[in-house]
What does this fold into?
Amino acid sequence: MTDETAFRAEVLAFLEATLPPKGAAVETGGTGVTRSVAFQRQLADAGLAGITWPVEYGGRGLPGRFQRIFDREAKAFQVPPRALEIGLGMCGPTLLVHASEEQKQALIPPLLRGEHIWCELFSEPGAGSDLSSVQTRARLDGDEFVLDGQKVWTSGAQHSDYAACLTRSDPARPKREGITMLIVDMHSPGITVRPLRQMTGDAHFNEVFLDGVRVPASNVLGDIHDGWRVARTMLAFERQALGGMGAGGGGKGGFAALAAEARRRDLSNRPALRDRLVQLRIRQMVLQHLSGYLQVKARAGDGAAASLLKLAMAQLVQESALVAVEVAGMGATAWAPTDPEGDRWCSQLLSAQSASIGGGTNEIVRNVIAERLLGLPRDEEGDLMPAQVTTGAH
It folds into this structure.
């Protein structure tokens, strides 16, 4: 068993040799994706990629407390954006649960080395909150599936090499029983990715069109027609990952940045603002402590725990954005064009609303918490087939 003190020293030596400390003025260069890929490869070379993942697939095979040691030490350094989080936090853990041994050997090591970027092809124009109404058709043709359909709100599709794709493989079955999860090569003929411009000016999300895309039948993740079970696993990991990201409370819009901005603007004479900052700090600390406990339960397949973590994260992110507006004042909506960081507060405000949608809307995760954690009665749910569903785009 690795000694915690020795592991902490190993982590610190790696971070000090690889990343600049917080507050240091450095030229970053490159996009968030390229920097994330480069850092992931450095982690892999140092034996620090997949700290809790099995050794046979390139991980370290250590208990979760070692990952928490790494995360604590990394807070003092300028870690690149978490641009690979969908693969590392959502798709990869789901592969560990549901993939065949052959799939694990082929897909997990390059994922940990940063060689493959992943996305989720889940939401559709008529199947956002109600994912079980997916209509993207997967028709079996010999030893291949032929995919036709449209996905939307796909994060990072423009950079991705592989996708976990939720498909309708048997429209004659009840909607949750005729679904298959497929591993799709995003470079396959017939895939078109179109960016969706957000109100922040970024294009993080995409529409993805699948026209006659051929996928080997060996790329089924789990079992044919049992994709809903796989999807629920991935959604639990997604909510866990999103909740963990919020629990850190750091970054350009976290509590530390808000407190520093309040000091810079000399707002110490505003007791109401001080109280809001204190309340924000308390909520962040509660979420940090709750996160460790809930992540253990979520890794064990407790979807309600992951949903609780995600809901708390969404609320914290949105409260942080409101406090940022109070701290920054007019700076939250207008800034000098010569200031490269001038839009930080406005960007935080505009993007905060998405926290209540990503990983399942707050309403959906509240239902999960109510039913699975509190034992309340389930919502009455119809079993309309995809062709009968007339909900609008999500």
